[in-house]
Amino acid sequence: MNKTIEKDAQTLFELGDELFKHPELGYKEYTNKKILTDYLKDHGIEVTDLGFHTAFKASIGSGSPRIGLIAELDAIPTLGHPFASKTDNAAHSCGHSTQCAIMAYALVKLKDVIKNGTVTLYFTPAEEYTDIAYRKSLIKKGEIDYIGGKVNMLAHGLFDEEDLFIHLHTMGEGKYHFSLNSSLSGFVYKQITFKGKATHAAMAPHNGINALNAFVLFDNALNMLRETFKEEDYIRIHGILSEGGQTVNSIPERTVYECYVRAMNEKALHDTAKKVDDAARYCAKAIGASASIRTSPGYLPMNQNRAINDVIRKYMLEYCEPQDIHDNEVSMAAGDLGDLSCFKPCVQFGYSGFGGNCHGKDLCIVDKKRAYLEPSAIVYDTVLYFLKHEEEVAKIKEAFQPLLSKEEYLAYLK
Question: Which has more pLDDT, 68 or 183?
Answer without folding.
Answer: 68
